[in-house]
Amino acid sequence: MKLSIIIPVYNEAGTVLSLIEKVERSDIGDIQKELIIVDDFSKDGTRKLLEQVNHKVIFHEKNKGKGAAVRTGLSHATGDIILIQDADLEYDPDEYSSILKPIIDKETQVVYGSRFLRKHKAKYQIYYLGNIFLSFVTRILYFRNITDMETCYKVFTKEVAQNLSLKAERFDLEPEITAKIIKKGYKIIEVPISYQCRDFKEGKKISWKDGVKAIWYLLKYRFVD
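Below the sequence we write its predicted structure tokens.
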């Protein structure tokens, strides 16, 4: 069995090599790892660092957004299971084994790592409350008890990936994936994960405007594909 780990990267020179090392060291038993790193036209030296990495690296010729980077990664993935991993060290690759377990045990084809099933210290209260609200909107619109719709850790089988037909370019990726997974009838199991939120000085990129857009995309994909 093979796990494809898609790592979208944009201006992460300070963390990307450490993240890749953590992914390489993560213990997932006999499962083979395939790292697919997509640099979304970084301008801070990240691209230079990635030239020395011994994994599949794809360089975008212009900045397209996280959604586009993930879609590029999906087009190169050959694994039986696919996992999305941000390059900023907010999420811990040491938790892969617990995230993968429900899929390995054939309980489901989709797992979300939920930050809200385990206590964590919120650095920005507005984003904490915003994430809770987006998950609430998801439950209202799609009749599924999702506690962390915006989580980076979305894991799914190759079959699921092939059935999603994603169009997202930027941070609309999270609501689009969730909406389409639910509408296709797949069961989502959430497992608790840890989370170390960084601040904007450290490179955090998502803004409150992306939260507003996420509500629109949840509404949009409720009625269209």
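The helical segments are 16-25, 46-50, 66-76, 96-104, 125-142, 158-164, 173-183, 208-223.
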